[in-house]
Amino acid sequence: MKQKISAILIVYNEEKLIGRALKSLKNIVDEILVFHDGPCLDDTLKIARKYTKKIFILPRKGRAALHLIAAIKKTKNDWILKLDADEFLSKDLQKNINRLAQKKEAAAYTFRWPWWDGKKYLTKNWPVKKVMFRKSEASFIQYPGWDEPRTKGKTINAEYLLEHKPQKANYFNGSKSFVNKVLGRYGKTQAYYTLKPLSDFETYNYDSDDFPLNIRLRRRFPILTAPLFSFMAFFIILKKHHFLTEGKPVFIEALETSIFYLFLGYYVYNLKIGNNLDNIFPKTKPI
Fold it and tell me: Prior bond to 114 cis, omega within 30?
C-alpha cells in the first residue's frame, strides 16, 4: 500500500509567502492543512483556499510549536510534512518526496536548509531540518521550541534541498532583532513555560512522566546550568555543524545560541525568586 503524506503549515499573516509554499505542494502531497495562529489580518487564508479546504483558525499563541499537536491530530496520513510559510519544496524534493515515504525503515527525514541572505544561500550542507516524519514514530510536548519531533525509529539525512527564502535574511538580522525577538520575546516565553509542570502541557506519544533531563536541570539549577549549557551549545554547534567548511554562519549560530542559554537561565532564576520579567532587560513582553 502506498504511504501517503499530509502537509501541515502553521502560519500567521503570511500573504506574501504562503502561495509559494502551497504551490510547491500542489499535486505532490495527498493532503494540505493550513492552521492560522489567531485571527487572520491579511489575505493568507484567501490564498490558502485556492489550494485546500482544510483551513483552521486557532487561538493566538505566538509560537507554532504550541499548535503542532493539534495540527498533527487533524491529519489522516502517517507521514507528516511540516512547512513554514517561508519554505517550499525544491524541484528535486518534489520529484522524490513520495519515493522517500515508501521506505519502510525510515521514521523521519532531514533536508538541507541553508542560510539565506536575501539574495543567495550562504551555506550548502548546513543546517539541516527534520520536517518529514511518521506521526506513529514521533514524540512531542506542547512546549515552545519543540518544533522537531523526537522519533523512535531511523532518521535519514537526505541531501535534498528544502528551500528557505524568508523576506528578510535568516543570516544574522542584526543585534536589535536578536535582542528584541530572541532574547526578549522568545527567551521570556521559554522561561515562563520552563517552570510549568508537565501536567500543564499536552503531549503526543510521550512516554515519560517528566520533562527531558536538560529542562529538569534548568528548572532546578537555572544559574548553575546557564553557563554550562551556554558553553556546551557553543562548542557542540561548532563541532557538529561543519564550521570548517560553512564558516561564519555556523560561528554566529553558535554564539547566538550560547547567549540565549545564558539569558534563559537568568530569566528562569528571576521567575523562581518572584521577579517580574517585564522589568528585566531586554524590556520586551513575552508573547
Answer: no
Write out the residue limits of the CATH 3.90.550.10 domain(s) in the chain. 5-164
Distance, in Å, from the CA atom of 106 to the CA atom of 134, rounded to the nearest integer, reads: 8
**CA distance linking residue 166 with residue 145, whole number of Å:** 19
- Strand ranges (DSSP E) for the chain? 5-11, 31-37, 55-58, 79-83, 87-89, 106-112, 128-134, 138-141, 150-151, 154-164, 203-204
All 3 cell numbers of residue 249? 554562519
282: cis peptide before it, omega within 30°?
yes
Is 134:81 a contact under the CB 8 Å cutoff?
Answer: no
Residue 81: closest CA among 61, 98, 66: 98
Q: What's the pLDDT band for 283 if we cut at 50, 70, 90?
A: low
Fold classified for 5-164: Spore Coat Polysaccharide Biosynthesis Protein SpsA; Chain A (3.90.550)
Alpha-carbon gap, residue 8 to 274, rounded angstroms: 39
According to DSSP, the residues that pair with 79 across neighbouring strands are 5, 134
Judged by DSSP in three states, 76 sits in coil
Q: Residue 179 has what pLDDT?
A: 80
Residue 171 reports pLDDT greater than 80: no
pLDDT at 244 over 80: no
Interval 28-41: pLDDT, tens: 999 999 999 999 99
- Contact between residue 246 and residue 123 where contact means Cβ atoms under 8 Å apart: yes
CB 258 within 8 A of CB 248: no
